[in-house]
Design brief:
The chain has 322 residues and is mainly α. It has nine helices and four strands. The chain folds into two domains: 143 residues, Glutaredoxin (3-Layer(aba) Sandwich); 154 residues, Glutathione S-transferase Yfyf (Class Pi), Chain A, domain 2 (Up-down Bundle).
Length: 322
């Protein structure tokens, strides 16, 4: 029996999920070097609170205090064959900028005949009425580099850590962020097992790293931490069961669980996390994985308990061996 792929165009012959590349990669600039000057009020974010990629841009927008600079609209977490939709509901709304009914309309307006998968986040230029960028990595970096002056104490990309941070972020993306999808969207036993084992090997390494560090690089929070957070916060609620990443829960990792709670308790972060959106999106939308579309009522997660991670402040041990 051949298992049906969630996204057939992104599946290899041996059942591995191969994520499509982001389609729009234009950049904002502060020096006129691109057609998209970093002007307050000109750009708008379209996001889903269910999506870990989009949620990272929501967090960065909050940390940089850009709520009055970059507008934002949240789509319906339930995605059907028409894609992400703008509807009125708890925590999501219609599109106040262009009046789009579906995010696919933004893609078609930017590239008529667009045939790829429509994804979030999207950074929209209200003046040129087109997508600037749909890569969460680019968007987070642009918001930081172009508008950081509103939060001068926030440095998500410290220059002195640039090489180490880039390396660790790539590791987290490949093994963890995308790793859960490679396990969950696998359509063969072999592809699933390879992805799942790679994922838990990575989590084991990160658990060890966080034994002596409050955050990934010591006592400061950088963008890599939020990259990891967006997967960890969804893990026990969705990836453990829905994606069969069930070797261990994050709750079974003392350091990762404490680290998750520490980040969740940072000012304003809990407000960016919506477990109703997260669970309804995955369990209802991925009907090839969950044909019944029944959304579980659990698990009970309390991320507000004391975590004790503050005891590790001020200590930065040597980099662990790869």
């Amino acid at each position: 029996m051949t298992n049906k792929a969630q996204f057939p165009d992104e599946q290899s012959d041996d059942g591995e999920f191969q994520r499509q590349e982001d389609s729009f990669r234009d950049l904002l600039s502060t020096d006129g070097s691109t057609p998209y000057p970093a002007e307050p009020g000109r750009y708008h974010l379209y996001v889903s609170l269910a999506c870990p990629w989009a949620s990272r841009t929501v967090i960065v927008r909050h940390l940089l205090r850009l709520e009055e600079v970059i507008g934002m609209t949240v789509v319906d977490p339930v995605r059907d064959e028409r894609g992400w939709a703008f509807r009125e509901g708890p925590g999501y709304s219609k599109d106040p900028v262009e009046g789009f009914r579906f995010l696919s309309e933004a893609y078609a307006a930017t590239e008529p005949g667009f045939h790829g998968r429509v994804t979030v986040p999207v950074l929209w230029d209200k003046q040129q009425r087109r997508i600037v960028n749909n890569s969460e990595d680019d968007i987070c970096r642009m918001l930081h580099d172009c508008f950081r002056g509103r939060a001068p104490g926030v440095d998500l990309f410290p220059k002195e850590l640039a090489a180490k941070q880039a390396s660790l972020s790539e590791f987290i993306y490949d093994r963890v962020n995308n790793g859960v999808y490679r396990a969950g969207f696998a359509t063969s036993q072999g592809a699933y097992e390879r992805a799942c084992r790679t994922l838990f090997e990575a989590l084991d390494k990160l658990e060890s790293r966080l034994a002596e560090r409050r955050f990934l690089f010591g006592d400061r929070i950088v963008e890599s931490d939020w990259r990891l957070f967006c997967t960890l916060v969804r893990f026990d609620a969705v990836y453990h069961g829905h994606f069969k990443c069930n070797v261990r829960r994050i709750l079974d990792y003392p350091n990762l669980q404490g680290y998750l709670m520490d980040l969740y308790q940072q000012p304003g972060i809990a407000e960016t996390v919506d477990f109703d959106h997260i669970k309804r999106h995955y369990y209802y939308t991925h009907d090839d994985i969950n044909p019944s579309r029944i959304v579980p009522i659990g698990p009970e997660l309390d991320l507000t308990r004391p975590h004790g991670r503050e005891k590790l402040v001020g200590f930065e041990p040597p980099e662990p061996a790869a």
